[in-house]
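cache lookup: miss for this entity combination. No prior model stored, computing from scratch. Input as submitted by user K.M.:
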Amino acid sequence: MDEGVMGVLKELLEQNDSKIILLVADGLGGLPMTPGGPTELEAAHTPCLDALATISSLGLLEPVGPGITPGSGPAHLALFGYDPFRYNIGRGVLEGLGIDFQLTPRDVAARFNFATVDHSGRLVDRRAGRISTEENERRVKKLRAGITPPKGIEIFIETVKEHRGLVVLRGDGLCGEIHDTDPQGLGVPALPARAVDSKAEKTAAIVNTLISQAASILKDEEKGNMILLRGFAKHEPLPTMRERYGVHAFAIAQYPMYRGLARLVGMTVAPHTASTDEDIRMLTGNFPQYDFFYLHFKKTDSRGEDGDFAAKVAAIEELDKMIPEILQLKPSVFALTADHSTPCALAMHSWHPVPLLLHSPFCRLSGAKRFSERNCAGGPLGLRPSVHLLPILLAHARKLMKFGA
Amino acid sequence: MDEGVMGVLKELLEQNDSKIILLVADGLGGLPMTPGGPTELEAAHTPCLDALATISSLGLLEPVGPGITPGSGPAHLALFGYDPFRYNIGRGVLEGLGIDFQLTPRDVAARFNFATVDHSGRLVDRRAGRISTEENERRVKKLRAGITPPKGIEIFIETVKEHRGLVVLRGDGLCGEIHDTDPQGLGVPALPARAVDSKAEKTAAIVNTLISQAASILKDEEKGNMILLRGFAKHEPLPTMRERYGVHAFAIAQYPMYRGLARLVGMTVAPHTASTDEDIRMLTGNFPQYDFFYLHFKKTDSRGEDGDFAAKVAAIEELDKMIPEILQLKPSVFALTADHSTPCALAMHSWHPVPLLLHSPFCRLSGAKRFSERNCAGGPLGLRPSVHLLPILLAHARKLMKFGA
């Protein structure tokens, strides 16, 4: 969505009491397992969604761009109404969001791998034999105890999983414009941190001191005696959804990445819940206080990543059962869509557009009797970028005035 | 496709062995001859395409923009993944490509007409009574013999057809920012060449000397005693498909314009062939060496331009027969589409979106039983700009990595 539209939208925002619920079924979009077969959504028994589809508008959203398989970060930002190219969140920052690390605007974050080097410092394994998370945690403890940050700088070292971790530098005047230190090959030493831009030279020097301290602290480890850093990024706070779209947004999501993304756009994030029933209770309890609700359903993506068609079908059927209780809240606008597709046939995220169902009193119908990718294609909402969704939700909630006379 | 998408795409390119075949049936899109009647594609008997359509994704591509009837140049560039506005190839350069003139980056090309002026230099016929190609060639010989280019400049004068020709200036520091000399009316003299920009003043002066020499050389001709120049353009080499999209592309096309366009984006162009059977053999023979294949089928456009509905239907049926042999090569991705529509009802290019069929193991189906404009509308690929096609082909060929985490 270009900034022309955004500039105009801000002028058209209007407050009212109407409430929008956006249910994101992560990775919902699918594919047939064999040519001509059904997708996961087509194979699932979804009486509630199907009944809703007959009185809703359907369409397809393209998450980020043609042919582009998005990560959860850009895909969610698009659904929240943020152009994912303009607001391209660095990998280090996304990793921080993913482990619930509370980043501040003074932070530069980077992902790291434990790696193994030989006695002369040459890389023999860029992932340290994929050491266990416990082994990672033991090394992280040693690093935390041994590293001395320069004056005015704090250094945080965090385990992510297996050989992966997160480094955060906190201080004034730091800059994330630093090249990866991973040389992407073996038999050569790790690269020093080099500034992309002269503004980053001070930060690069701090990183290089950190790396040499880490190498010294880890030198007795047989595996994982070095760290490789990549995806350096400064944490740049985003304009909030309140500022951009005038909504008070509330997020119900369990995984750190989605909680972090919601926080990044200024949503209030609900405490953790343990089931979809609790999610619904959380939604119900907070329904009076907010006017935009983001509810994240993860299983569709997880089962898609597993490549387990039957399990993804079952997850969709579980999703279907949530619908009546959500609708009992009588939101002005209810939308169900996905951040991206995760077809079992690929067992990973894909570039395929995602199905969209939008229900409000102001819907055009397609005559479809089922909620499926096929029926969404050619639906009244068309095929459009995901970033278009938010203004359409606002319009159906009557939160946008007329443009021009 | 904005440059945000392009910038990201470059970072996502991944090499693999998968192969993409893009079959462009020139002018394939059609219209009913009478309201409610079938289009050419709907009237044709296309068992191979119909069978393929049941296991493929369908959609519509808009070549250049809403309502815009494109020439072959911009329409093909869009299919090759080049924004046709950003890469707006000048008319003079396109004319050069169209007659297989090998342009270099030091060239400024312009189209010209032989025109007729009276004794006082006023235009009486802007097309010299549409003199024959032979008469054109006779005048071109005289011009070549008589014109003296300034030091350091070469001048090429080429017959195109009937009253039309091509002038190419070759030298250092030339600039194509020059207004047309055709005043677009009679009873007035030809305009002098005027620089749009001061950088073009030297070039404009060379053109004016050329024009006065030409007028002097042609003064005894009863018709075609003057030349009018238009569409001045510097030949600017384009970034190659290899640079932009990481593919080694091979082109099979017979007409100079398409060969020239393919060369312009860095494709290797096959030697001429004499039949579609030879095209298939050329494709088969080169299949191991490249990973992107552009195959051009011209007859659908030619018969459309003739306004001959039955002949265009027959051309489509000939196209249909090529499909099984192409699929025997087992490309990872096969796409059939058109550069633009050429409906017999109009007997010319039109602005209508073109049908698109995309076959890969990762296709969503529309449930269509036939390949037709009607079934492409509302298909899973939606209606989108032609320039979106290339990234989608790369995605289906698994040549694009994930964007963001």
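stored under new cache key. Chain A has a mean pLDDT of 95.
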